[in-house]
């Protein structure tokens, strides 16, 4: 019997990359997994078929749709808010509507989904949001909106840990460094620069991040809350 047998798990943003690795990990460990996606229909359907999980379209930029999805999922043992985007470029040239959309996906959805999940979450539930080492360290120009959004999650976790702690519900931030996904391919143009900041000079694997998420979701982590968990090859050290 898997470590998460019988648990209901919702992953927001699970069709590709780190989210897909999280879906695979929890499904392999026996959970009933539902994951959301926005654009990657084929990848989502393939992952659902592979893992026996349920894929549903929910745009993380749409607050009311996210809240409805969380509510309709019913009591959730583990909520993972993984969906996130980055916008690169000169802050003076960026479209303010695009920046606001980033903030809806990266900040508003983690907040509203966490609060909505907590309404029905059983005692001992787990909330895990996907931050970034860029919430601690932003060593290059052109990514201020992303850094802003990921550091905001630190306040989210610190605050909601106080609200939900009395019910034994934990909330934690996982802060990856460079992870090999479509968003940050290991053979991309930033490879050498990123590796120059790191002690372990490679991109991480999505499965390594999923392992940290699984530990935070499990019974050994019941005393861990309101905290940031960095997995970055010492990018931020
Ligand atoms: P990818 O771009 O590879 O995958 C993003 C996932 O999020 C996809 O499943 C995508 O679904 C989903 N998603 C994006 N926008 C939305 C939306 N509006 N509504 C619903 N789902 C959405 O990203 P990664 O796997 O690399 O990143 C995942 C998380 O990890 C993000 O929060 C990111 O900021 C964070 N992170 C990543 C790092 C890295 O180096 N890769 C480093 C640090 C943090 P779909 O395609 O179906 O829309």
Automatic annotation (TrEMBL):
<comment type="similarity">
    <text>Belongs to the short-chain dehydrogenases/reductases (SDR) family.</text>
</comment>
<dbReference type="InterPro" id="IPR002347">
    <property type="entry name" value="SDR_fam"/>
</dbReference>
<protein>
    <submittedName>
        <fullName>SDR family oxidoreductase</fullName>
    </submittedName>
</protein>
<dbReference type="Pfam" id="PF13561">
    <property type="entry name" value="adh_short_C2"/>
</dbReference>
<dbReference type="InterPro" id="IPR057326">
    <property type="entry name" value="KR_dom"/>
</dbReference>
<dbReference type="InterPro" id="IPR036291">
    <property type="entry name" value="NAD(P)-bd_dom_sf"/>
</dbReference>
<feature type="domain" description="Ketoreductase">
    <location>
        <begin position="7"/>
        <end position="182"/>
    </location>
</feature>
């Amino acid at each position: 019997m898997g470590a998460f047998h019988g648990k209901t798990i919702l992953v927001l943003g699970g069709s590709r990359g780190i989210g897909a690795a999280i879906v695979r990990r929890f499904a392999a460990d026996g959970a009933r997994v539902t994951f959301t996606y926005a654009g990657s229909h084929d990848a989502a359907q393939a992952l659902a078929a592979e893992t026996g999980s349920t894929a549903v379209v929910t745009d993380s930029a749409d607050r009311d749709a996210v809240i409805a999805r969380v509510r309709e999922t019913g009591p959730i043992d583990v909520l993972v808010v993984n969906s996130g985007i980055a916008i690169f470029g000169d802050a003076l040239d960026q479209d303010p509507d695009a920046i606001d959309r980033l903030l809806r996906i990266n900040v508003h959805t983690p907040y509203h989904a966490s609060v909505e999940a907590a309404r029905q979450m059983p005692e001992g539930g787990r909330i895990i949001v996907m931050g970034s080492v860029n919430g601690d360290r932003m060593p290059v120009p052109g990514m201020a909106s992303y850094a802003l959004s990921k550091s905001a999650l630190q306040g989210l976790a610190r605050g909601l840990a106080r609200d939900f702690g009395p019910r034994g519900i934990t909330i934690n931030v996982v802060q990856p460094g460079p992870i090999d996904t479509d968003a940050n391919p290991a053979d991309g143009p930033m490879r050498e620069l990123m590796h120059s900041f790191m002690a372990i000079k490679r991109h991480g694997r999505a499965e390594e991040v999923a392992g940290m998420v699984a530990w935070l979701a499990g019974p050994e982590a019941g005393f861990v809350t309101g905290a940031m968990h960095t997995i970055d090859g010492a990018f931020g050290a």
